[in-house]
């Protein structure tokens, strides 16, 4: 289990590099770091449990049980806090994403990240393609279209025009 958590944590940290412009708060990677730390702690706890079982130590097994109970309490607390603060996190991420979309000009690094995100997640805008109508880029181009990264990958000759929403 510890090896699996280590892999997941490392994967999230590596993936974070692609989306760090959207998640300007450096604490956004904190859950992945916590996952890696939990993996290390789980390995140590598993080692304690194995040694206590192998030696048939009542003190070691009691310590192992106490640690497992603390972990269970921490998991329940984390679930409750995640449930309570889910809307705040959603609002914060959407606000940051909107500000990055506002900076889109098709050339700057934020624009590259927006295009990458839309292509990888097969989406357009924060909620949908109509989010682009309020951006500076949309108003400055004047051609009533969204970036080509909004186009479906299997559609040929997509222009990004809003009069063909089925292609977005």
UniProtKB/TrEMBL annotation:
It is a multi-pass membrane protein. It comes from the Eukaryota. Gene3D superfamilies: Tetraspanin. The keyword Transmembrane applies. InterPro entries: Tetraspanin/Peripherin, Tetraspanin_EC2_sf. One of its GO terms (cellular component) is plasma membrane. This is TSN36 protein. The chain crosses the membrane at residues 28-54, 61-85. It is found in: Membrane. It comes from Neopipo cinnamomea. Keywords: Membrane, Transmembrane, Transmembrane helix. Pfam families: Tetraspanin.
